[in-house]
Write a structure and sequence with these properties.
homodimer; alpha/beta; 60s Ribosomal Protein L30, Chain: A; Alpha/beta knot; 4-stranded mixed beta sheet; 11 strands
């Protein structure tokens, strides 16, 4: 059975400071753990009920450095969820080196002060769906390895590189390279009619404050999601996750002839 | 100051059963209360700190049947939030009579077993944004007057009628009237190329199970949001709120010449 010290170590990973020092984070849930194994990600430590580990194939066990059994009560103690799952795992964070030349070749996302873990998680999930591989977060965004973000992204963080940086510097560099920066705002050109490029950075702002004034000079195209009602009360803006989904979908739709669409039960890509 | 009995009454409204009996629900937050007053909604009871009620205009006070002062501690006790706001109010639910002829004239939404309050709240908000005025929920969906739904919808429930009914009956009636039913699925025709009508019902399913088998026979058009990646692990589906936003946006885009777009800082409606 798992030792008290290891339980303490796993609990310590709920703190961003410790995660950053150790370059480790925790994933929770039978499904998520299986997804990571399926994706070939090495687990530093698997903690599970006996029935979970027994259900794994022998070759799947090669994907873990260490495995510990735990009781329901132990798992409940370590869990950030109300009801614990049968398994959780400690995983190494990916490296932070980014090839900007690669980023500038496609669409990337920049998030300014997105605070809600659920919003970041779903933005990562939608980005992955639409083939966006890089998200640049301002330093004051919620941490991508926060347990709630990991939970909400549901494994999509395996496909999207999330980096934290000074967005002024990042967007400044993009400007030098003539990479367009699309700012999602309450005023601008309709996303339905703007010339949506295949390259560029989609910048989304804070849940209530929008894009910071200090980042506005970097915006080269102002985007707006038109509102189809004359009502104003109670609908001043869209949730940032919703806005992200709509913008990503619209860019994907415009550019879809050049993108690969998964053929898992989907119609082939074709023009309207 | 507010009496213990009134506090008890407000707390009792956290229960769906009591809300339904009384036909009352609670809104929390200075902003939300102000929005309701601005929209001309009568408050059955306002509970606030003195500074909140003092900040209202004299004519705004006409919108309340009753007002009670409360301390921070009282508000904290009544609140469903970690940090209470300065005001909350008890509001009467709108009537439940629906003119189906009216519903069938435009786009409406049907939600099958949507359980997460945040999802329902944001779907209401996005529906309102795109001018959708009716949402039909299966009886096992989360209650629209659940405090978390009210909070997440941020006042948008003032613009959208949310009804609970047996969806088999509702969709059966739609079928008789030849109203198309668009089912959002993992297989079907791409939302980017389907003929999106100006009338019809957009049916969205449960967070993990999708649309119930018993409702599938009512679907006349199967919609899919194409995935722009060949990756599968960790991105089997989109969150139902995200999917809703993308589908509503796409229908609005196709039909926008016939809809009124608010002119608050937006470009006029025009074709691509």
């Amino acid at each position: 059975m798992i030792s008290k010290n290891k339980i303490k170590f796993i609990l310590s990973l709920q703190k961003k400071k410790i995660r950053d020092e150790q370059r480790l984070y925790v994933i929770e849930g039978d499904k998520l753990v299986r997804e990571y194994i399926k994706a070939g990600i090495k687990l530093q430590l698997l903690v599970s009920k006996p029935e979970f580990i027994n259900s794994l194939q022998p070759d799947q066990k090669d994907y873990m450095e260490e495995a510990e059994l735990a009781s329901y009560d132990d798992l409940k103690h370590m869990s950030t969820l109300k009801t614990p799952h049968n398994a959780l795992a400690v995983v190494r964070m990916p490296g932070t080196d980014i090839n900007l030349q690669e980023v500038y070749k496609g669409l990337a996302v920049a998030l300014d002060f997105v605070q809600d873990p659920g919003n970041l998680g779903t933005i990562i999930r939608t980005a992955a769906w639409f083939g966006i591989r890089y998200i640049f977060c301002s330093e004051n965004c919620v941490d991508v390895y926060n347990p709630k973000v990991v939970q909400a992204s549901m494994g999509a963080i395996l496909h999207v590189r999330v980096n934290y940086c000074d967005l002024r510097q990042f967007l400044g560099d993009a400007r030098k390279k003539k990479v367009p920066v699309y700012g999602t705002l309450l005023e601008g050109e309709s996303i339905y009619s703007i010339r949506a490029g295949r390259k560029g950075i989609i910048l989304l702002g804070n849940e209530s404050k929008g894009i910071s004034p200090e980042l506005m000079p970097f915006v080269t195209k102002k985007l707006v999601i038109p509102k189809f009602t004359s009502a104003t009360i109670g609908i001043e803006s869209l949730n940032v996750g919703m806005a992200a989904s709509i913008v990503f979908s619209e860019f994907a739709r415009r550019n879809r002839q050049t993108l690969t669409v998964s053929d898992r039960g989907l119609h082939p890509v074709h023009q309207e």
